[in-house]
Design a protein that fits this description.
A hairpin with a 4-residue loop joins strand 8 and strand 9. It is built from 15 helices and 21 strands. The protein is an alpha+beta fold. Helix 1 packs antiparallel against helix 7, helix 7 runs parallel beside helix 8 and helix 10 runs antiparallel to helix 11. It has three domains: 235 residues, PAS domain (Beta-Lactamase), CATH 3.30.450; 46 residues, no CATH class; 218 residues, Heat Shock Protein 90. The radius of gyration is 64 Å and the shape is rod-shaped.
């Protein structure tokens, strides 16, 4: 399979493509840098705002816990300063605190065996005997001097609802004796849940609390009834004590922020999903892509316009070069474009001037050369023809054929006179055919009427101009290469006719003809190099064809038609130009008037 040839790109296309690629590359780099910086800024801002939300929740939770601690301190002071803590007065004060707050479920004080000392719960006595096994009770006794938050769990007082318990060991007075007891403050679970759930980290983000041992204190997705967490990365959180990190869990990247809740051993964990935090990046990226595409389109249009502007003088120069190829040398240097293009245009203009000068010189030289060749060829009339003609004259004179001698000498003189034509290269068709007629008269007398000829020239074409010596060599070829070898009488017909805006001169003979190869070689370039043949007067058919084309153009010249034993026809085509009006003067030649053209 033939490989397809690659066509080179134009300068305009290369400039446009180069500019578009380079500028698009830099636009892409800039947009990528902007995207990285803006994405980083949005991510940092999202992480910072999320961290601030978690911090605010932590502060609110710490404030709430401090408030509970203040309640605990109040109860502690009340138990320490009241002489009989078990009296109704102390219960009334505790009930007033519980009734004034929606987040407090109840306040109860137990002795170290788990028996109720005082409580705001009406059914507190029903719980005696099972309190000592509660986690909050055991933690308070084991960690004397500290307080503990435990939860969520069912209320130890009424068994209904879920609470978060605050427990610690306090001292109270009983009959002037200092006794230790366990203080239990049950907090409404929903109060803590609302405090944490009010924070919006992202569309589906959340905050939960774990204890220092990794146990769950609160989680918004926790199944309250069985205390089982559906899904959570507790292990990942336990690996990080404090701070923030990004990890992947269950196929989603998420930001985890861990903070310690003041006054407790809790850790507040905020979860925000990165795809939601970076949601603002989507319209930003879409906008950037649209801007990039529009910028590239605008840059391509701009680069195309710039390249068109830059290459416009070059394109004009190229068009002028193409015009010069067709022969139109009307070119002036352009002053548009860059300095280099302007210099190139001036140089090209100077080159055109030089080429025109050289072409004029070549045309002049060629014309002189062709004229000299023609003159030389005209001067080289075949010596055999002249010798044979004069020899025939001698034989006629010896035989007493005075009329034949006069006729042959007169034809020979006419032949020389028209051949010279007083330096003119252009003569009338009448003069050209008169020259041919004289030549045929001589040859018919030499060959003793071996052939006959006819000449048909319409009267309206007699003064039509033509270059001279274009018919006689053809007639000569007809005699020497066609009729000479015939056994019967030969015939040469010369007929002139109009065809459209041209004139056709048809020379036909009934000679032996020629084959296709010989016919094709008569007008070939090799044939044009041969100026003299053995049997001709030196002006070959190829030279006649070349003279006609040089004088009138490539559409004019000779057409040869021939077949073996069928004769030969040569058609000469010349343009029909304005007729020549000869200036006629009378001269006397051997007692007869003869006409000459100045």
């Amino acid at each position: 399979m033939k490989k397809k040839e690659r066509r080179p790109l134009s300068i305009r296309t290369m400039i446009a493509i180069s500019m578009a690629v380079i500028i698009s590359f830099f636009v892409l780099i800039v947009i990528m840098i902007i995207t990285v910086f803006v994405s980083g800024a949005i991510e940092d801002n999202a992480m910072q705002s999320t961290s601030e939300i978690v911090t605010q929740v932590n502060n609110n939770l710490s404030t709430y816990i401090n408030d509970i601690i203040d309640v605990s301190d109040y109860v502690r002071d009340l138990a320490r300063t009241t002489s009989s803590f078990e009296t109704g007065e102390a219960r009334t004060r505790l009930e007033s605190i519980v009734n004034s707050r929606d987040d407090l479920v109840g306040i109860t004080v137990f002795n170290m065996r788990g028996n109720v000392i005082i409580s705001t719960e009406p059914h507190a006595e029903d719980t005696e005997g099972g309190i000592s096994s509660e986690l909050w009770f055991r933690r308070a006794i084991a960690g004397e001097g500290d307080f503990f938050f435990t939860g969520p769990h069912r209320s130890s007082m009424d068994g209904n609802g879920y609470v978060i318990s605050y427990s610690t060991v306090i001292s109270y007075r009983n009959a002037d004796h200092a006794m230790q007891a366990v203080l239990l403050i049950e907090l409404n679970f929903n109060a803590v849940a609302e405090l944490l759930d009010s924070a919006h980290l992202s569309d589906t983000g959340y905050i939960y609390i774990i204890s220092n041992d990794g146990g769950l204190v609160y989680h918004p997705k926790q199944r309250i009834m069985d205390d089982v967490l559906i899904h959570e990365d507790i292990a990942g959180v336990n690996e990080h004590v404090f701070g923030s990190y990004i990890s992947s869990f269950e196929g989603r990247d998420r930001l985890t922020i861990i903070q310690t809740v003041g006054q407790t051993r809790w850790r507040l964990v905020g979860i925000a999903f990165m795809d939601e935090l970076l949601e603002p990046l989507k319209p930003f990226r879409i906008t950037l892509v649209i801007i990039m595409l529009l910028s590239i389109i605008a840059l391509i249009a701009l680069s195309s316009s710039i390249s068109r502007y830059i290459t416009k003088p070059l394109r004009e120069l190229e068009m002028n070069m193409r015009r010069i190829q067709t022969g139109d040398f009307s070119y002036t240097a352009t002053s548009e474009g860059s300095k280099e293009v302007e210099s190139l245009s001036r140089s090209f203009s100077l080159m055109i001037v030089k080429i025109e000068e050289l072409m004029d010189k070549v045309r002049t030289t060629e014309a002189l050369k062709r004229q000299r060749e023609l003159d030389a060829l005209q001067a080289k009339i075949n010596p055999h023809f002249l010798y044979n003609t004069l020899d025939s004259v001698v034989w006629m004179a010896e035989a007493g054929d005075n009329q034949g001698v006069v006729k042959m000498i007169t034809a020979l003189a006419s032949l020389f006179r028209i051949s010279i034509a007083k330096g003119h290269d252009t003569i009338t068709l009448k003069e050209e055919l008169s020259h041919v007629e004289s030549y045929l008269d001589i040859q018919s007398m030499r060959y003793k009427d071996k052939f006959r000829f006819t000449i048909d020239l319409p009267e309206n074409l007699e003064n039509a101009p033509t270059i001279k010596l274009i018919i006689q060599p053809i007639v000569e070829n007809s005699i020497y290469h066609g009729i000479k070898y015939l056994q019967e009488e030969g015939l040469i017909e010369i007929r002139v006719r109009e065809k459209d805006d041209d004139i056709e001169i048809i020379v036909r003979d009934n000679g032996i003809g020629m084959d296709e190869e010989t016919r094709a070689s008569l007008l070939s370039k090799d044939s044009r190099k041969k100026t003299v043949s053995s049997d001709s007067n030196g002006i070959g058919l190829a030279n006649i064809d070349e003279r006609l084309k040089l004088s009138y153009g490539e559409s004019y010249g000779l057409v040869i038609k021939s077949e073996l034993d069928e004769g030969t026809t040569v058609i000469i085509t010349i343009p029909h130009l304005e007729p020549i009006q000869p200036v006629v003067k009378k001269t006397v030649l051997h007692g007869k008037f003869d006409e000459e053209r100045d």
